[in-house]
Amino acid sequence: MSQLHHHPFSAASRYVRLVLAEYDETVEFIEEKPWLRVPALLQMNPAGTLPIFIDDNDTVVSGGPVVAEYLVETKGARMGEVRLMPEHAADRAEVRRLVEWFSQKLHGEVTNYLVTEKVYKRRMAAGEGNNSPDPAAIRAARANIRYHLQYIGYLAGRRNWLAGRELSLADFAAAAEISCIDYLGEVPWEADETAKAWYARVKSRPSFRSLLADTLRGVPASTHYADLDF
User: Fold this and answer.
1) Residues 175 and 182 sit within 8 Å (Cβ to Cβ)
2) Which of 94, 104, 172, 212 could disulfide-link to 18, CB 3.0 to 4.6 Å?
3) Into which EC class is this enzyme placed (predicted)?
4) What is the CB-side half-sphere exposure of residue 193 using CA atoms within 13 A?
5) Average pLDDT, stretch 126-131?
6) Mean pLDDT, rounded, of the chain
């Protein structure tokens, strides 16, 4: 059976979980601590980051965007048109542009700050790192999320899905980041109704159910997190 080394609140891991669920793939989930540099994981991925996917043929693939495209090419092909990547090169380029935007820019300016300060640091044992939350990082994330939410609303207001006519990896890359932020109650949904409507469409998909069932001891989900109608 394939394996996914992940953390429930790693947005990149959530991205891959969504793609796996969309393709109805059964995998073994192995939870890791993203803040630790575990030698066994470093052998598989020298960058020391999650997720790491091990296919049932022992192929090792690491990094959310890379794993997602690997799944499109190896698992999605058997599903015909439901591939999550467009047919034409220019359209695929737009999907990849947005995946990079969400997995790097949105993650770096918002998700990483909030998850590190409000989730990871609560789980760090003595000696595993500085577990004192940084208020400045949280303030920066709260300021930056509004800009990113407006951009999602801009895209969703001009296209059927974020990258074009069809649901694509871009939607799941964005939704994975937003889901982490929304769990923590840090998405100002009142700031953009179009973005809110797009997210409601994505989180209503069956592939989203496992994410909505995620819980974290000591950090309760926002009251609307698992509510499909907000």
Assistant:
1) no
2) 172
3) transferase
4) 0
5) 75
6) 95
The predicted structure's pLDDT at residue 132:
83
Q: Locate 112 and state its tokens.
A: 């990483």
pLDDT for position 76: 77
Contact by Cβ (8 Å): 24, 18: no
Tokens of 110: 């918002």
- What are φ and ψ of residue 5, in 5° steps? -85, 120
CB atoms within 10 A of CB 50: 24
Residues 171-192 have pLDDT tens digits of 999 999 999 999 999 999 999 9
Ranges of each domain in the chain: 2-79, 89-212
How high is the pLDDT of residue 127? 76
- The burial class, CB within 10 Å (0-12 / 13-18 / 19+), for 178 is buried
pLDDT confidence of residue 225:
97
Alpha helices (runs of H) in the chain, residue ranges in sequence order? 11-22, 39-44, 64-74, 89-100, 112-115, 121-123, 135-158, 169-183, 193-203, 209-212
Q: Report yes or no: 97 and 162 within 8 Å, Cβ to Cβ.
A: no
Give the domain 2-79 fold. Answer: Glutaredoxin (3.40.30)
DSSP 90-131: HHHHHHHHHHHIIIIIIIIIIIHHHHIIIIIHHHPPTTSS--
Options 1.10.357.10, 3.40.50.2300, 3.40.50.2000, 1.20.1050.10; CATH of 89-212: 1.20.1050.10
